[in-house]
Design goal:
2 helices; alpha+beta
Length: 229
């Protein structure tokens, strides 16, 4: 009988954990280039996307953020990425974000607590050392830097999701892209999907603990009711 109770508790905790994670996922709003035709400008509600000038004037952007496909053909054309258009006289679309060309800027109508961004490999040389490097910065409403994180794709990783999770709405602006440092580090990177939430998003471990606590309380209450009868 005790074994059945343990199994029942584990099942109950697992169900609550899944339920909690679904609630967290539902709170995240995703801006996905897949939802826009190739070459069209991405203009979602609540957040303004802009291609801002990088560290040099090489191939300056015209400001628009576009839905584009991988120009190297590593990914299928059904996968769209954030990209931009280069000002004339070059006059071309560009998909790989590199610090000397352009950076992706996202400004929210009001501060948010959670931001997620998908960074993809732009070449496939791979290896144990980081060979695709990007960054993500977060600023508050006063333009103070509140988050600074490097993004490393290594060990043959194709992509990774970087998350910024704060306990209160503080993130007003995000800037992300590849890295360019005086020609010594010159990395480009692909960016796909931007997620955000005004409300804080609990960590998965917190959801499991909450679910476990709720399950234990439910079983204790059930035992008390049985004893009372």
């Amino acid at each position: 009988m005790r074994a059945y109770r343990v199994l029942g508790l584990l099942a109950f905790v697992g169900a609550l954990s899944l339920w909690g994670s679904q609630i967290a996922d539902a709170a995240i709003v995703w801006v996905n280039p897949d939802d826009y035709p190739i070459g069209s400008q991405i203009t979602p509600p609540f957040v303004t996307l802009t291609a801002v000038l990088g560290n040099t004037s090489q191939n300056p952007p015209d400001g628009r953020v576009l839905a584009l496909v991988d120009d190297k053909g590593h990914y299928p054309s059904t996968i769209h990425f954030f990209g931009w258009h280069v000002q004339p006289p070059v006059n071309i679309d560009q998909v790989a974000w590199r610090g000397k060309w352009a950076n992706l800027q996202a400004v929210f109508d009001s501060p948010v607590s959670y931001v997620a961004m998908d960074f993809y490999r732009n070449d496939f040389s791979g290896g144990p050392s980081p060979d695709e490097i990007g960054f993500i910065l977060a600023f508050d409403a006063s333009n103070n830097l509140i988050w600074n994180e490097w993004v490393y794709l290594q060990n043959f990783e194709d992509w990774k999701t970087v998350e910024i999770s704060l306990s209160s709405p503080q993130i007003k602006k995000i800037v992300a892209g590849g890295v360019y440092v005086s020609k010594s580090i010159d990395q480009d990177i692909l960016i796909r999907r931007l997620g955000y939430s005004i409300e804080p998003i609990p960590e998965p471990s917190v959801l499991v603990l909450l679910a476990g606590g709720a399950g234990a309380l439910a079983i204790l209450r059930g035992r008390k009711r049985i004893r009372a009868t």
